[in-house]
Structures are given as C-alpha cells and as structure tokens.
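Title: Prediction job returns without error message
Component: structure pipeline
Severity: low
Priority: P3
Assignee: unassigned

Description:
Job completed but the reporter wants confirmation the result is attached to the right record. Sequence as submitted:
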Amino acid sequence: MLMILEVILTIVAWRRGWKSKSLIPGVFGFSIGCVLGLCGILPTTFPGILMGLELLIIGVLGFMCYKGN
C-alpha cells in the first residue's frame, strides 16, 4: 500500500517540476532495503527501521509535491 502511495507521489512530484530529482527518495529507499537484506537483517528483526524509512520517503515526496520546483 505504501509503495502505491510512493509511486503516486513520485509522479506528482515529477509533474510539479522536480523531474529526475523526484526519483532520488525511491532509489535511496530501495538501495537501503537491498543493503539491509544482503546484510541478513530481516524485516522481522527491525520493523521500526523499515517503517521509519518508508515514512521518511513518503514525507520527502510529500514535501516535494507540496513545494514544487
């Protein structure tokens, strides 16, 4: 559900003028998730870290949508 919201916010931020900069939060979150997975840190171990990361990404994208460029 949160990924759908991230995609929608990314599209809105893209259209608001951020262009390729709107992709940075999603790529950052995906990269951190992959690194944590490769290190063996499962989502069941630290669910707060992953949820905080998702909420941070949504917050940044929301700000980008609100602010425009």
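Comment from assignee: result matches the submitted record. Residues 1-7+20-35+47-63 form one domain.
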